[in-house]
Amino acid sequence: MGQEDLMNTAEDVADQFLRVTKQYLPHLARLCLISTFLEDGIRMWFQWNEQRDYIEATWNCGYFLATCFVLLNLIGQLGGCVLILSRNFVQYACFGLFGIIALQTVAYSILWDLKFLMRNLALGGGLLLLLAESRSEGKSMFAGVPSMGESSPKQYMQLGGRVLLVLMFMTLLHFDSNFFSILQNMVGTALIILVAIGFKTKLAALTLVVWLLAINVYFNAFWTIPAYKPMHDFLKYDFFQTTSVIGGLLLVVALGPGGVSMDEKKKEW
Fold first, then answer.
1. pLDDT per residue over 159-184, tens digit each?
2. Which residues contact 186 (CB under 8 A, 6 or more apart)?
3. Which residues neighbour 31 within 8 Å (Cβ) at sequence distance 6 or greater?
4. Where are the membrane-spanning stretches (predicted)?
C-alpha cells in the first residue's frame, strides 16, 4: 500500500467517524471547550478564601477588590458556561470568557510565563472557533439572505482559532535526543502545520485529538495525587485546560477549516 493509498484510507476512516458522530460531536466539543472555565469557577467557590488572600497579598489591592476579583471569576465563568451549553447569548458569553482569560493572565502573572501564556492563547483560539460556530448558526436563521462571502469575519475567526490552538502543542514538544522524542516532535509538528494552514484539516485535527487525549490522561493524572498536595491542583488545572483545547480541535473536526484554508482553495483548483 502506497503513501497516497494509506492517506486515502485514513481519510475514509475519519469521514466514517464524522458521519456516525456528527449529531453529537459539536455538543461534546462545546462541553470539552468550557470544561476549564467550569472547573475554575467551581474552584473559586471551594477555594474562595485562598484565592482572595492570594490576590490581596500579590497585588496589595485590599480585601474588597480581591473579593470582587474572585466573585467576578466565579460568576463570569459559571455564567458563561451555562449560556454556552444552553446555546443562549453565546457570543456575549464568549466575549465574557475572553475577558476572564485576559484578567487571569495579568492577575496571575501568566504574561511572563511563556508556557502558560501560549496555553491561554490556545484557549482563546477555542473560543474564537466557538464564536465562528455561533455566527454560522445565527446566519442559518436567515436563509436566502446574501452572505458576505469568503471574506466574512467568520472565515478569519476560524483561521485565527486554528493558528492559536496549535500553540498548545508547541508547549508539548520535548527537545531530547532520544528517538521517541524526536519522532514525536516530527509527527506533532507536521500535524500542527497541517491544522494551521488548513490542509487535510479534519484528519490532522482528529489525529491531534487522539494524541493530546493520550498525553493528557498519562501526564496530568491528578486523580492519582492526594488532594492536599499542591501538585494535585496543578495537574488538575493542566488537565482541564488541555481538555478545552481538545474541545477546540473537535470543533475544527466538526465544522471544517473554513474558507481561509488550503482544503477550501483546493475546491477552486
1. 898 889 888 877 777 666 777 778 87
2. none
3. 85, 247
4. 63-85, 92-111, 179-199, 206-227, 239-260
Q: What percent of the chain has pLDDT over 70?
A: 88
3-state class (DSSP) for residue 61:
coil
Distance CA 84, CA 93 (A): 7
Mean pLDDT of 45-72: 93
Residue type, 233: D
User: What is the mean predicted confidence (pLDDT) over 189-197?
Assistant: 87
* Number of domains comprising the chain: 1
CB 167, CB 208: distance < 8 Å: no
Tell me which DSSP letter residue 109 carries: T
Once rounded to an integer, what is the mean pLDDT over residues 65-78?
A: 95
Start-to-end CA span in the chain (Å): 27
What per-residue string of b and e applies to 200-227 under the rule 16 or more CB within 10 Å gives b?
A: bbbbbbbbbbebbeeebeeebebeeeee
Q: Which domain holds residue 168?
A: 1-266
3-state class of 128 per DSSP? Answer: helix
Helices within 87-200 (DSSP H only) = 90-107, 114-140, 153-165, 167-170, 179-197
CB 169 within 8 A of CB 185: no
Cell of 100: 476572564
pLDDT tens profile 204-244:
889 889 988 988 998 899 999 998 898 998 899 889 988 99
* Residue 67, C-alpha cell as written in the block: 473579593
Cα 108 to chain center, whole Å? 20
pTM: 0.84
Q: Which residue has the cell 507536521?
A: 190
